Each structure stands twice: as structure tokens, then as C-alpha cells.
Amino acid sequence: MKRRWVIVGIACIALICVAMIVRAQRNHRRWAKSAAVYRTRAEKGDAKSQFQLGAMYYYGKGIPKDYVQAAHWFLKSAEQGDVNGQYSIASMYYDGKGLPKDNSEGARWCRRAAEQGDAPAQYSLGIIYSRGQGVPQDHAEAVRWYRKSADQGYPQAQYALGYMYYYGYGVQRDRVRAYDLFQQAAARGNEDAKRALECSRKGISIDPEAGPWGLQ
């Protein structure tokens, strides 16, 4: 009896594995079909399709992963003003994926996306100015971009802006405003903001050397 149940269990596992393989094959075929459609449109100059094709190359969805091709299509999309293409090519330049690492070019493309109102790009540009990566370090300019992103409800920017207020980096120190921003970010699930509030409740200082990307 016990042996029969073992056989049944093995058979069930085998069926599950087969089902997973079939599903993966179907997903791959679906992705491959999408890639073909995006390629046709991208080659005709459609900016959104160029970005989508770049993303498929980046993640290896439906086509082999290829950072060079991803960067190629992201750049084509970015040059036509697509904000996702601009933000993506900025990341590629900073990471040195698919093209030579170039912080100045990364900052330039990130700014173009940020100027279109993209909250993640605005937040990233704030980080760029905070760290001086490809631009002169400028905390006041970092605050300006964090604020633009935070005003759109982007939690990472709310936390970062709160940190700047907490220590007075690029803005007059204001702990009340800092706590308010931490609370806003925490309400949206930001873990750094939650830890900042917990540190405040316990009377533990936030490590000034950690910057807005970590707490002691």
C-alpha cells in the first residue's frame, strides 16, 4: 500500500513537472511572437516598440539576452523622446551594460527623463547629484529633484528628501518636516522610512555616514 502511494506521488510530481515545462514553452512562444511584432514596429521607427524590444533583449524574454542590442534599441527610443527609453539608457550608461560606462551620459539621459516628469528618474537624478556621479556634487540640486519626485508620491524620494531635511543637506534642517516625509514614505511601504521612524521612537540617531540609502 505504501509503495503504491509512493508511485502515485512520483507520478503526480512528474505530471506537475510536465505541466510546468509546457507552460514555460507556451510563455516562450508568446514572448517570441511579441518580440517579432515589436521588432517590426521598432524597425519602422515606433519609439514605444523600440523600448519594448530593448526590454526584451535586456531580460531575455522571447529572444536571447543581449545587452548590446538592448542598449541599441533603448537609445533609439530615447532619441525620439520616449521617457522609458531615456531612463533605461541612462541606467545602461551607469552600469556599463551593452556600451562603455559613462556617468556623464547617464546623467544627461536621466535628466531628460526627469524633465518629462518621470518620478523614478527624478529620484535617480537626485541620487546622482547627491553622489556627484557624472555631475558636480550639489545637495541643493539633489533636494530639488527629490522634491519633484516626492510630490508625485514616490516613496523612495519621500524618504531621501526626509533624510536631507533631517540633516540639513542642501536645505535648512527641519526635523518636523523630515518626520512627516518619513511617515509618508512609510505609509507607502518604504522600509528605510519605517526604520527611520523606529530609530526616532527609540531615540537612536540615524547614521549620517549611511546617507539616504541606509540606516544604522
Features:
10 helices; elongated; 216 residues; disordered C terminus; single chain; mainly alpha; Serine Threonine Protein Phosphatase 5, Tetratricopeptide repeat; 0% strand
Could you spell the SSE succession in H and E letters? HHHHHHHHHH
Mean pLDDT equals 86
Q: Over all CA atoms, what is the radius of gyration? A: 23 Å
As a percent range, the share of strand residues is under 5%
Indicate the overall shape: elongated
Number of strands: 0
CATH superfamily of the domain at 36-116: Tetratricopeptide repeat domain
Characterize the main sheet. Answer: none
CATH architecture title of the domain at 36-116: Alpha Horseshoe
Structural class: mainly alpha
The helicity comes to over 70%
Poorly predicted spans = 8-26, 211-216
Distance between the termini: 58 Å
The CATH topology of the domain at 36-116 comes to: Serine Threonine Protein Phosphatase 5, Tetratricopeptide repeat
Given the structure, what is the number of helices? 10
The CATH class assignment of the domain at 36-116 is Mainly Alpha
Structure description:
The chain has 216 residues and is an all-alpha fold. It has a domain at 36-116: Alpha Horseshoe (Serine Threonine Protein Phosphatase 5, Tetratricopeptide repeat). It has helices at 2-43, 47-59, 67-79, 83-95, 103-115, 119-131, 139-150, 155-167, 175-187, 191-202. Helix 1 (2-43) packs antiparallel against helix 2 and helix 4 (83-95) runs antiparallel to helix 5. The protein is elongated, with a radius of gyration of 23 Å. Mean pLDDT is 86; it is low at 8-26 and 211-216.
